[in-house]
Amino acid sequence: MKKTALLLIVALTGLTACETAPVRREDYIAQHPEWDPEMVRLIRAGMIAKGMTKEQVRAAWGRRCYTCQGTKKGEWGESWEYRTQVVFFGPDGRVTRWEPK
Fold first, then answer.
1. Mean pLDDT, 10 residues at a time, the chain of 101 residues
2. Residue 74 class from Cβ within 10 Å (0-12 exposed, 13-18 middle, 19+ buried)?
3. Distance (Å, rounded) from C-alpha 27 to C-alpha 37?
């Protein structure tokens, strides 16, 4: 019984956690031949940069845990929260910055 309960807890935790497994980066890259070679290099390395699109961030870091949209300090934006980082996007949908949680 204890083993079954433990397995259930582990399974539910996996369903509620954000993506942690390596992302299929090459699939994203293959779907977007128009991406700049420097962005592709960063994605393959699991890194992000200012100016990246949401799709490029998803390719590099995987699915986010949470999303927040609204205004902060007078400007509109969207942020994606990962386990250890928060990525901020401008009104154009591109990365403006990221920082530790």
1. 43 42 80 98 96 97 89 76 94 95 87
2. exposed
3. 15
| Prediction pTM value | 0.75
SS3 label, residue 45: coil
Strands 75-81 and 66-72: antiparallel
DSSP state of 18: P
Bridge-based pairing state of the strands 66-72 and 85-89: unpaired
Instruction: Please give the structure tokens belonging to residue 101.
Output: 């949680």
Q: How many C-beta atoms surround the C-beta of residue 72 within 10 A?
A: 10
Q: Where are the domains of the chain?
A: 24-100
